[in-house]
Amino acid sequence: MSILFKGRQQGASSKKVGPLQRLFMFFTDHLRQAVNSLGELYRAPFASLMTIGVLGFSLTLPSTLYILVKNTEQISAQWQQASEISLFLHSNVSEANAQQLMTRLSVWDEIADLTFVPADEALEEFQRISGLGDALNYLNENPLPDVVLVVPTSKHATPTAAAKLLDKLRKEREVEIGKLDIEWLERLYALLDIAKELVYLLAVLLFFAVVLIIGNTIRLNILNRRSEILVMKLVGATDAFIQRPFLYTGFWFGLLGGVMAWLTVSIILWWIGMSLETFMQLYQVQLDITGMDLEAFGIMLALSIGLGLMGSMISVNRHVKEIEPE
Amino acid sequence: MIKFEQVSKTYPGGQNALSKVSFHVEQGEMAFLTGHSGAGKSTLLKLISIMERPTVGNVLINGHNLSNITRKQIAYIRRDIGMIFQSHQLLMDKSVFDNVSLPMVIEGHTRKTIAKRVDAALEMVGLKDKARNLPITLSGGEQQRVGIARAVVNRPPLLLADEPTGNLDPKLSMEIIRLFEDFNQAGVSVFIATHDLGLIARMKYRTLTLKQGRMITDGLSDSAEDGYL
Ligand SMILES: Nc1ncnc2c1ncn2[C@@H]1O[C@H](COP(=O)(O)OP(=O)(O)OP(=O)(O)O)[C@@H](O)[C@H]1O
Ligand SMILES: [Mg+2]
Fold first, then answer.
1. Residue A146 DSSP code
2. Contacting residues for A310 by C-beta, under 8 A, at least 6 apart
3. Minimum-distance CB partner of B83 among A5, A8, A234
4. Residues A8, B89: C-beta atoms closer than 8 Å
5. Atom of ligand 1 nearest to the CA of B35
6. Where does chain A have alpha helices with state H?
7. Would the CB of B40 count as within 6 Å of ligand 1?
């Protein structure tokens, strides 16, 4: 409806067009503009590819690192299940007492497996590996204590749960020292946390750069079409109408950049997987790098499109307004 | 239709382009605006299409004060005003058809309506067979007529023209004025700025004359000449 002339119809609000047809027109209009914007990209393939490349690669780096960190976390979780608690018993504990302790512990829920290593056996083994051999025979007494090796169930194998279990075991009267070798695991976890933070930081910085780059590309597009925008404003185009094709350009940059990033990450991970495989076969560890699934694809696309749109929105809001006919 | 009330316009540089201009062009009227180069003709038209805002005074269209129009509403105001520019303002890389259809596309008409109206507009200006051409391949007069077709394609109640006959020979100029007369016959208010006095002299239309930003005469065309000289 016209502001100045009561009763004068402007555009599609005029008589014959029903609401359904208007909705249909809305969609076909947008579709046409989206396709037009894609056509614009195609007409300047080199410039478009550069922008898409910048977006794609900027997403590739944090995505790859993120997936690697995630996988390391999963693998270390497997290792951790093998972690053991060693209980060194008091020297005055008799063999029978030790067996009693074993029976008591065997009913604990937290414990998956128990092994008793008598002091004599421990000494023999020490003799064997240390190479001290007969020299140890001169000891009049075995200085080593009896040892119980405790393997926690997987549920109680996380660092905190295992530490709790250790505390509980230390309260047993036969136990002199309990030791849980999870310090390295805790360190690994701390390292992984730092790595994750770094990945996030890197991602934020790169995303910021992407928004700026897309914004600048769109700004150049807008300036290139300055005269066209002027004419459109002269014949009554709203800012929103003029902005739309540029927003679609941002959308396409995002979509194509996202697809590109996904492909690159997939290739990099496949390549890392190949070289890891030979290594892992030596250790007989099953290793699959996971995380490049449909969900990851969706997230990467959404992120990428979001960045593309954000860049174009910022640019469009500033620069389309600036162009005014004089 | 167009009403100026004590309108003055001073450009940021301090240039006094219009001083206390008042006049009223009625609905359905056809009027000319003349004056020397730099007299303020273009400035006056720009105040109507809100490309500039008055420093003092009010501009009203159809009773609506333009000072109440927000920045966002300007686009909708321009859809009610068909504007023709001395420097045609055509898109040189788009076909004649695309150029003329632009106001319709902006308003979101159906493709069928657009095709029908653009054809009709091009028919009126005698360029029906050039719809697929690029404006560059047209003569100056033809380009001007494309601009006119674009200005009338969405049937605005008001037509503004700034030097529409700028570089055209007298015969072509007359043809274009005849076109405006046709639209005027159909009920459209027409307001034309030109310094082509010879053209005006041949017709009896109301003529407003500006001199250094002041409205010095307002009357039928033959009386305008005295003030102009
Ligand atoms: N954007 C602007 N900034 C500053 N001064 C301007 C601007 N536009 C016009 N002027 C000044 O205002 C005065 C009136 O200019 P205007 O363009 O309205 O004249 P005109 O009557 O259309 O002249 P012409 O016949 O040459 O087109 C001139 O002195 C001009 O220098
Ligand atoms: Mg002028």
1. P
2. A211, A214, A250
3. A234
4. no
5. 21
6. 19-43, 45-80, 95-106, 119-130, 159-170, 183-224, 226-234, 239-283, 294-322
7. yes
Mean of all residue pLDDT scores within chain A: 84
If you measure from the C-alpha of residue B43 to the centroid of ligand 2, how many angstroms do you get, rounded to a whole number?
Answer: 7
This prediction has a pTM of: 0.76
pLDDT in tens, B189-199: 999 999 888 88
Exposure string for A291-319, b = 16+ CB within 10 A, e = fewer: bbeeebbeebbebbbbbbbbbbbbbbeeb
CB of A324 sitting under 6 A from ligand 1: no
Q: What does the pLDDT read at residue A259?
A: 94
- pLDDT the model gives residue B217: 83
Q: Interior CA angle at A30 toward A28 and A33, to 5°?
A: 110
pLDDT at B227 over 50: no
Q: Which chain B residues contact residue A236 at CB under 8 A?
A: 75-79, 103, 106-107
What domains does chain A contain, in order, with CATH numbers? Answer: 27-77+188-322 (no CATH), 85-179 (3.30.70.3040)
User: For A237, which of B75, B77, B80 is closest by C-beta distance?
Assistant: B75
The answer, yes or no, to whether any atom of ligand 1 lies below 6 A from the CB of B17, is: yes
Query: With contacts defined as CB-CB under 8 Å, which chain B residues touch A241?
Result: 75, 106
Mark A85-108 as b/e (b = at least 16 C-beta within 10 Å). bebbbeeebeeeebeebeeebeeb
